[in-house]
Amino acid sequence: MKIKEGRVCVGELPVAEIKKKLVTDGLRIKIGPFNTSLNSSINSVFQHVKELYSAFPLVKEDEIIDFYVRLEPTSSLRRWVRPQVNFSFDGYHPFLPLPLIQAGAMFEWGLNWCIANYSHQYLIVHAAVIEYKGHAFIFPGSPGSGKSTLCAALAENGWRLLSDEMGLISLLDYQLYPVPRPISLKNESIEVIQKYSRNAVFGQTFLDTAKGTLSHLRPSNEAVYQKDISAKASKIIFPKYKKNSNTDLKPITKASTLLQLADNTFNYSVLGKTGFDTLTEVVDNADCYEFTYSNLIEAIEKMDYLCD
Description:
Distance between the termini: 34 Å
Largest sheet: 8 strands, mixed
Strand content: 25-35%
Structural class: alpha+beta
Order of helices and strands: HEEHEEEHEEHEEEEHEEHEEHHHEH
Helix content: 25-40%
Number of strands: 16
Number of helices: 10
């Protein structure tokens, strides 16, 4: 399996070679615009990468690594009683250890932290971003808003995934740059997407996390292959899943959108005026809505309608 630029994918490596790289010098994976070196001796991390990152290209030897990350068991007595895992970035441990069985999830959370804290060439919005027919939609939202469920359903319905967690808006051209990764789904959303799409591929199910039950949906190969294709924001939609509600799309003002979007931005205060100018440019050139839904099929039909 080779992608258009001639890079070798993770899934093309022999299993033994993936394990060897993880344990020794690190498995060097290109994830959107970021070059990540992952080092771990934990078998569940190997399984996580093998199941969910098989289509991702490897970083070439002469390319600079952005994030050196490591996941390893703690070295205390907990190795034997309630074993735990540590996440480190360039030797720094930003988090407290988690149960060892959550190692794969910790990789995803840790990588989110790396991107949010060290990628200020972008304005970073906490949002799902998805594209269809040249229309890129930004779905900002807090946990429980239904953004990831809607994003996953659209991704399984032919839309291109740019990100489930972070909208990367370039400070130079105001385009959205993809960082397609496994989609994090929680609790009831896992079963909803499993029922919606028979082709959906999930990784390990993590029980009793701080966010409840968690699993990751593998992104499509096409989304990974198109990691270098940016998109212009066409719609900014604040989704809200509400049980037994009607499907309701309501326009909102750009002023309200700007305020809400700023609240959902990781590095808005760090970027100062540049962040404000970037956010204003994106909002000015997009249609803005609030969207309430409970029926996933109706929600997808409404999103498709907005692209016509």
